[in-house]
Amino acid sequence: MTFREGPVTIVRREDYAPPPFWIDTVDLVFDLDPAKTRVLNRMRLRRNPDVAPQALRLDGEDLNLARVLVNGAGTSFRMDGQTLVLENLPEGNDPFELEIFTTCAPEKNTQLMGLYVSQGTFFTQCEAEGFRRITYFLDRPDVMASYTVTLRADKRQYPVLLSNGNLVESGDLEGPGNEGRHYAKWVDPHRKPCYLFALVAGNLVAREQRVVSRSGREHLLQVYVRQGDLGKTEHALSSLVKSVIWDEARFGLSLDLDRFMIVATSDFNMGAMENKGLNIFNTKYVLASQATATDTDYANIESVVGHEYFHNWTGNRITCRDWFQLSLKEGLTVFRDQEFSMDLCTTPSARAVKRIEDVRVLRTAQFPEDAGPMAHPVRPDSYVEINNFYTVTVYEKGAEVVRMMQTLVGREGFRRGMDLYFQRHDGQAVTCDDFAQAIADANPDSELARQLPVFKRWYSQAGTPRVQARGEFDAAAHTYTLTLTQSCPPTPGQADKQPFLIPVAVGLLDAHGRDLPLQLQDAAALTHGNTLVLSQASQQFVFTGIDAEPVPSLLRGFSAPVVLAMDLSDAQLLHLLAHDSDPFNRWEAGQRLALRRALAAIQADGAPATEPLDAGFIEGMRAVLRHPTLDAAFKELALTLPAESYIAEQLDVVDPQRVHTVREAMRRQLALALHADWVWAYEEHHDNGAAGPGALSAGRRALTGMALTMLCLAARETNEPIWPGRTYQRFKDAGNMTDRFNALSALVSSGQPLAAQALERFHAMFKDEALVLDKWFALQAGAPDRGGDILPRVRQLLTHPDFHLRNPNRARSVLFSYCSANPGAFHRPDAAGYVFWSEKVVEIDAFNPQVAARLARALDRWKKLAEPYRSAAREAIARVAAKSDLSNDVREVVTRALAD
Ligand code: B3K
Ligand code: ZN
Question: How many CA atoms lie less than 13 Å away from 92 in the CB half-sphere?
């Protein structure tokens, strides 16, 4: 494959230069054939008058070039590697026509970038640089053109022909050689960068609905799937309708197309893609039925459908000038999808649950990234392979940066800023600076506007800042002085950091757990009544009118993506756990208490304690579980111990086996000590309003599932058969996938003998449901390790007739669940997990570099590992790096991992 050729080039943000040519229109004609698709590309170009005249260099990859014409006549050209270079183009600024005829082989496209075939249907994926695999082009986001697309194909095999925009013509093809063939012509009324181009051709059916927007315009919304899947599209379509309504209501942004389509494919490298008017989705984020999808699946579908739809404005109407600006669209659009999901919640508690879940992702995935070899700023400065920078930093930390802007200017101020952003930049390809400037300019009196250059360090400096907080109560002066000090650890290429601008939302609790009124000595230092703005290395904030020592509740709602360090006593944390009016910090207090115990047991000398938990902690947890008014969903989150990866991040040297042993011991202890409470929780929630849809019922299902897991864990210790038996019964009788899968997972994760039987039955029930089989594989590969039993199980799963390494969802279900999400099983003292990992990275890289590069990141944090893990991991990475024919994708990841 051609991606192995040539030297590795580093692309740098500082080298950005505008394109020497503009492409105004593109007229594409496709003759679709899996073995050999013909692409006729007729473009109108003109020189960019602002750039000194130079050759036209068109990107291409894996294309067969047949013909190049300029203004209808043959022309000289040369190839520079895969780049098509045209030197003798018409001079002057007049537009000229360029016609390029190429062919490609979609059925051989295993990378799933460009034009490919999945189950007999054609799909495209062009972001970031896949369009060059379809035709020669200026494959960069700042070149925006108007597209006309004609698709021609066999009518019987490909009855549905879709592309961006509006269908303007369709019919049967005539003439010799065209028997049984038809065509469709699509015109996209909006200019767009080529990464938003899409086509789909196949035998599909659609669920559709018409909606009328506020302006009175009618739109047709469609969800296309394969024949048998139509019954599973209701939720995706209703999520799309909700997205359309929400974006109008919250941001005044209406759908700008007559027709908006979603198409699902089971072969897709990521979640979904926001192609203009023709979103292409992984089936995982479209298909759902009560029988096959869990509550989490339903929630994910809603948020991904929203995310892609919201890109229509934040990404498509206003796009990125270059790929370094990726967070301009991704951070902002994640923020928007998070707000969408929160706004759909009907209770404040459900909103808080969503916020906790989002923060959990940030802390368990992004914080490690920001501390490891792949750490990069939200707006990176350089890359080898841009696909490696679709990261939790660009997405989730980027969303936190936007959220901090909203916190600093308020919700209304943020809306004003968004309005100004669209007013200024609609139809343009812009930068993160442009976005921040618009939000600041619309709010000239805000702290954001006053300190914009300081705030923008969030875009340029990598690493997770650490805020150390110290509180001092002065009884005589009736003051409470909070000292906040910040620092940020070095990251690759960035040794010294300047202070960040950090909004710290605060509360002070009295002895009864009530919020004290907040009054600062310097009144102006309090933004929106509860937010301190830290922008220097160290600052003091003096609260007045305080009569007794309060318990501080800092960083409420997780107001900034930082690590907050504060020496609160157990009693103070238990006070917050019992009373904090901020649900996020209430949850956080429980996490801190648990973390403290985990770290103590891990760091103690000798064998780890079998009972790391004390009565105070257990009673605190019991009080949460039995609480009369807290939501079940919140309880489930509060009783979930911090993840092994999160615990590991708090340690300088990590023994993954010890982390696993200690966390399992804590789980076992909670299972046994709260046995009667888990029974109560199960009885109270399992069929009491747990059946319906909606967040409240979902919370009950989640807590019921947790109770079963705990009861099965306890049964393992006590050898009593009742709860495993009831769990198996529930598994069999469940009326929905959430309950069924939770019961199955309770049996598997507690290592019950009944698990084998249940797994077999589950497979037989769902053998034709690909997405359910993914869960079946993932559950087994992600199960807690007992005596090294998971790796042999994983190897066995790879030989299962239903396992297909080339299908990204299936590959992820086994390999990622094992290598990235099951540290206790992956990090083996005999290094066999690492050897397995290196084999699979190399094997997958040969046909799909993007998926391989994701898997390659599983060992990012190897330098933190204790011996013998550290040396063994290094050796495994070095073994991958030693391969001479790696893709740039994997090469970049392993090179960075091995760098000093
Ligand atoms: N923009 C796409 C991601 C494309 C990934 C390319 N490697 C999906 C999204 O963020 O909405
Ligand atoms: Zn996105």
Answer: 4
